[in-house]
Input
Amino acid sequence: MQVRFKLYRLIREYFATHGVAEVETPILASSGNTDPAIDSFVTTDADGVANWLRTSPEFFHKRLLSAGSGDIFEIAKVFRRGEVSTRHRPEFTLLEFYRLGVDEFGLIDDLSALFSAVFCGFNRKPPACVKLSYCAWFERDAGFNPLTIALESLRARVANFGVITPAAKEFSRDDCLDLIRTHQLEALLPADQLTYIFDFPASQAALAQLNSDGATARRFELFLGGFELANGYFELTDAAEQARRFSRDCSARAEHGMPAVQVDQDLLRALTNGLPSCSGVAVGLDRLLMILTGAKNIADV
Output
């Protein structure tokens, strides 16, 4: 408890120094997250109308940014159904923040400065920072280019892990890349180093803008050792493209027999009105607490 409270204080002090306003946004929403990789908790009100527990405060934050809030952050309770492991809980805490007029690399520098302030606040040496593109990461530690390798070769590599069912022959390119990442590459990252992986495949763009090559997205993830701690974007501001991505997500959910989710029309209206150029990131505070306390299970923090 004491470490958590001190962590929150250090975070708030950092943002106060940099003029970033703290906000509080709703936990219960009238729309949900369409991402097929995320399963939401849903409830109904007295009239039978569905409401979703937020999986992230992102959509609310973008509505605030579009309304002129300026730079913002939130320490937010979020919920994702079915996520239980030594590093996953259905309820967890995210730090989410947005900086206007900053691209993903400027946000990486900002996030590194925040981590430095946190580690110094606990009288620890700040970790070194390394930036590596997604393609360079796979080429260095797996020996292939993830954008050009044949899908059948990827499926064969996944099957060799020995923990995958015969359904591996049905896995998509992204399914295979994610499994190779989690089963092989993340374990090789240095334990005392902040590693930023940037330029993800366009198929994994989520809510990030694409690069001019059309093959990669302006998204990054942060690892400290094998712990994935953060996911950030140079944010998509195009309402029409966002609507197309929501539609693709909904189709994918239907194909996999997943529950339908109400699309956030308020977010689309906010993007239509104009989201300023900005970058945003979500940081898993419970995992950071595991690192700060030496805990082996997220349930312990």
